[in-house]
Amino acid sequence: MDQNKIDILERALQRQKSARKQAEKILEVKSLELFDASQELNKANKKLKSLLDEKSTQLKGVFENINDAYLVMNIKGKIIKMNDVAIDFFGYDLNNEPVNALNLIFKEDFEYAMKSFYALIKDGQFSNYNARILTKNKEIKWVNINGSIIYDKHNKPVAAQGVVRDITVQREKKLTLDLINNTAKSILGKEDINEIAFEISNSINNYLETSNCIIYLKDNENNKLEKVAGIYFDESTPLENKIVNDVLKTGNYELINNLNNDKRHVQSLKNNQSKITVPIINDGIVIGVIDAEHESKNYFKIEHVDTIKNIANLVALQLKSALNIRERTIAEEQNTVLLKKLERSNEELQEYAHIVSHDLKSPLRSISALTSWIKTDNIDAFDEMSLQNFEAIDLTLETMENLITDVLEYSSLNAVVAEDKEVELDVLIKNLINVLYVPENITINILNKLPIIKGDKTKFQQLFQNLIGNAIKFSNKDKAYINIDVEDKNSFYKFSIQDNGIGIAKKHFESIFKIFQSLTKAKNSSGIGLSIVKKIVDIYKGEIWLESEVDKGTTFYFTVKK
User: Fold this and answer.
1) What Rg value do the Cα atoms of the chain yield, rounded?
2) What is the CATH T-level fold of the domain 415-561, as seen in this structure?
3) Average pLDDT over the chain, rounded to whole?
4) Per-residue pLDDT tens over the stretch 241-254
5) CATH code of the domain occupying 66-166
6) Considering the entire predicted model, what is its pTM?
7) Cα separation of 480 and 475, whole Å?
């Protein structure tokens, strides 16, 4: 090989060596850069891992320590994660048993729950969804749920998550408050007992969601219970309902979770299982009972008892008032009927008295005329004893005619008072004294000026005439007196007629006001005068009484409303 070729090869070799050294130098620099980058990447990975661990710990803390129940489920409803609050609330442990959200839905809310779930998938989230759920122990709870959908990287829904808050107590308080307010409003101003009871029954049924609620009230007059309201009335009578009667007698409520186990229960048309019975108490006395039933066992809670007791306390006074109004209305209707009967009887009595008095007086006058003719025609033929007998006949006939007149006068008295006319009693009595026969040994004194009152002049004349006439008739003193007085007692006048005559024994104080009750054998005493006085005082809604001592005198007192 010639020298030129050798030189060319050597130069080529030198260039290769130089290029390799440069490549090695570049590789060394790049390797160093790669090593440094690798170190930086390791540091960044460690920091990122630390951050991820920190965030995971924070999320786990939030998940576990949230006050409300939190759960995650797949699209088919299988629950894949629950926090401790959710485990305690629902009663399920995912480590021991699979749970599907469909099994937690209350059966009556199932359709509503499914519509809401489809809306959640469509919209991606919902808030303030309220519904009922069933726990593992079959407890019914009201919950409020805020939920959202979890998507994969392809924006496809793969799961749902939700925060579940127990609002059972909160909802119960609101329902209780609404029940009390609505019940109070619904019965406000009502007086009809059935209308009030219906509003109470309807409000309680809506609150408890019961199959029936009956309101019983006690009928004291007939000693029984009366059904006054309810959605339907069972076939049993209140007396057969021993549970209701026990509450009525004891005043204590009854809460029964299984009626099949209670021998007191009489089965009705509906096979109800739970019962709550609360007394209605007014002034410490049980006046009625609120009785509610439900078809499910163990339905009622003590909170329901407290609520119904509050309702019973709220309505007790108005129910009692309505009972009184109804009783008064019935009594007024009965009184109206009786008054009409009495009015007819009085009219018939007056008509009868006039007829009888006329029919009786006619033969008496005939007898009087006949005896007078006989005595006149045979005056020389009769001895003194026979003439005395004729006088006795005349006196007897006169007494009989006076008796008939008094009876007619008594029967003619009625309760019609002419209150639109003023009667000057002072003038009336002074005129009366001038008309009456007053013996010289009797002094009549008017101690105070007598008032002007509204009423029937004839009745007051009869009243004072009988009292003053009796005082004159039964006077037995050489110096006798009759004192007439009056006292103003604001709403009524109190009159008195005092004498110092023969007096009246205490045992006769009541009987003397009865018709035909004469205490003497006086020929001119029919025993009707004080009966007339009593009847007139009664017409003016007053009272009459007396004070007396035998042989010392008598004072008659009577009142007349202004």
Assistant:
1) 54
2) Heat Shock Protein 90 (3.30.565)
3) 81
4) 788 888 888 999 99
5) 3.30.450.20
6) 0.46
7) 7
